[in-house]
Amino acid sequence: MSQDQQIFSTAILSLQSPVPAGLTNGCGKVANRRFSVYRNNVMDSLIKALQTGFPVISKLLGEQNFKNIAGLFVRQHPPASPVINQYGDNFPAFLKDFKPLEHLPYLADTARLEFALRRSYHAADAKSVHPSEIDALSPEQLNAAELKMSPCAFLISSAWPIYGIWNYNTAPNAPKPPVQAQDVLVVRPNFDPYPVLLPPGGAIFFESLKQKMNFFDAVSAAQDDHTDFDLAAVLTIFLTQNVLIEIRPNSRERRQQENV
Questions:
Q1: Burial of residue 80, with CB atoms counted within 10 A of its CB: 0-12 exposed, 13-18 middle, 19 or more buried
Q2: Separation CA 44–CA 41 (nearest Å)
Q3: Whole-model pTM?
Q4: Are 94 and 76 in contact, with CB atoms under 8 Å apart?
């Protein structure tokens, strides 16, 4: 960004900044009024983009409170990319550190869930594993295999009931959120993403597979963390929600195959 562009960008987002030099109206005078209109339009557009991207947060805070807080965020964190659907990636961290909202500690993780839904929507498509491919493996082959996750799948683990909060504020007649920690997996089996509540151990299992642990080690890690880990229930979620996109032989077998 050139110096002139930086000055213009700063002036757009700061009410105290003067009109950049060289901007004049039709009479050759400083374009104070026109620049103010443009500044207001830019701010309004960015705030609306945040409101569209974080509808549950807007509902929880109330529309006017959200707009006020979003305005502060926009001035501190202007867009770093011209791709508006990526804007707001650091909004959850902003909410977490925003002292006037420290009495609402679940907001940040709820915002993380909403941003994960947006990321999932724009993620690349990938062909999913069919259950028959799992059934065709021997126990030894399955235990040694590495399972690759869909680029549409995002895990959000929270000390707060973020799935319950999201569901209560988006679905008619949804139950009130329980007072408990929740692990949520954002999935996109077709066109629109949505969150799925994972049972105990599901998050550890997902993360272990993401770190390229083989199936056996990933199951062991989940069982070590949660003695009531239900592998069948978690695998059912992964297969029905198109979370798995590839079954790879273990690293040793894969090297042998590559050398053939």
A1: exposed
A2: 5
A3: 0.85
A4: yes
Question: Both tokens of residue 145?
Answer: 């295999």
Residue where the block lists tokens 């090297």: 255
Residues in contact with 249: Cβ distance below 8 Å, sequence separation at least 6, in sequence order: 141, 144, 145, 146, 257
- The pLDDT profile of the chain, 260 residues, written as one tens digit per residue, is 555 455 455 555 555 555 555 555 555 555 556 656 656 677 888 999 999 999 999 999 999 999 999 999 998 998 887 788 889 999 999 999 999 999 999 999 999 999 999 999 999 999 999 999 999 999 999 999 999 999 999 999 999 999 999 999 999 999 999 999 999 999 999 999 999 999 999 999 999 999 999 999 999 999 999 999 999 999 999 999 999 999 998 755 554 454 45
Instruction: Scan for tokens 């724009």, then name that residue.
Output: 122
> Which own/partner contact pairs does 31-37 have at CB distance under 8 Å and 24+ positions apart?
35/11
Instruction: Quote the CA–CA distance of 215 and 138 in Å, as a whole number.
Output: 12
**Residue appearing with tokens 């069948």:** 232
Q: How many CA atoms lie within 13 A of 160 on its CB side?
A: 14
| Sheet of 154-158, strand order | 154-158, 182-187, 194-197
